[in-house]
Amino acid sequence: MIIGGHPTPTEESERGGREALQLAASIGRDETVVLLLSGGASAVMTVPAEGITLADKQATTAQLLRAGADIQALNTVRKHLSGIKGGWLAAKAGGACRTFAISDVVGDDVSVIGSGPTVPDASTFRDTLDILQRFGGERAYPARVVERVKNGAAGRVEETPKAGDARLANARTSVIGGRRDAMDGAVRDAESRGYHVLRIDDAVVGEARVAGPSHLRACVAQAAGVGRPACIVSSGETTVRVTGSGKGGRNQEFVLVCAAPLSSLGISAAMASVGSDGIDGPTDAAGAIVDSTTLERARAMKLQPDTFLDRNDAYEFFAPLGDLIKTGPTGTNVGDLQIILLG
User: Fold this and answer.
1) What is the extent of the structural domain holding 28?
2) pLDDT (tens digit, 9 = 90+) per residue, 50-107?
3) Is residue 234 classed as helix, strand or coil in its secondary structure?
4) Residues 230, 179: contact at Cβ < 8 Å?
5) In this structure, are 221 and 169 located in the same domain?
């Protein structure tokens, strides 16, 4: 077994990626390679493109995450720095490819899930260069990365395989699970516990500290006619633009910024946001929970929420309160799940 790193690739990620390429290339024309793909595969299975090192990819991933790049932008860059993503695994296979994917991507775009190793890629080097410029500028990235992307945008490096590429003619991909399956499970469990359930199917996206309060307000308004106790279930994936030096993740920041508005509701309420993979940012927590007592308990411990938000340090706010949610790695990834309890 090879266990790669996430969200930043490791040496084991590269070893796993190269073995996957070797296996795919070794099959005969009448054989089929079966790929079980899930969110997180972009980091867990990696092969740096020619002229790019693992360290280059690690630095690029870290910068994009700090700058708040969403999964589409992040994986566009990954595909154009890779020898396995963006259709290259299927293109280099000796036979057919059959992929079964569990989606962590809003909209279930198979070219984004795991950076689409077996499907055509519609994004370009030009798109990639625009993303680098938007999330930090060229100076924020390794020189080899910028050089490759610029050469690709100028047509001097081969693009990722596109729709109609004959090398992908025998590749098929099916999405067999996603965020709605996680919501189904949460709804069933809440109903079994006697809650009146409101399900919000629209994906929760955007910057965590902006999306959190907006989502809370919208959910409370929609739940006005729902019986009590109420459970509101939603899902999606937000981003964080890191400007501080603290420790946390998008789910922890999402609920921390909601501590004050939740308290102001004047009713018994709680809100949680968790990563379905059990990993929220560079922490050992899946997410966190706030409730009607969070601010009172924080004041007693001289913890100021705004100070921790300014430092992107949500983990250190929730840790002494005992309000981190720790599940350990789950081995799969279908995005983030949010739960709000009222009454």
Assistant:
1) 11-177
2) 999 999 999 999 999 999 899 999 999 999 999 999 999 999 999 999 999 999 998 8
3) strand
4) no
5) no
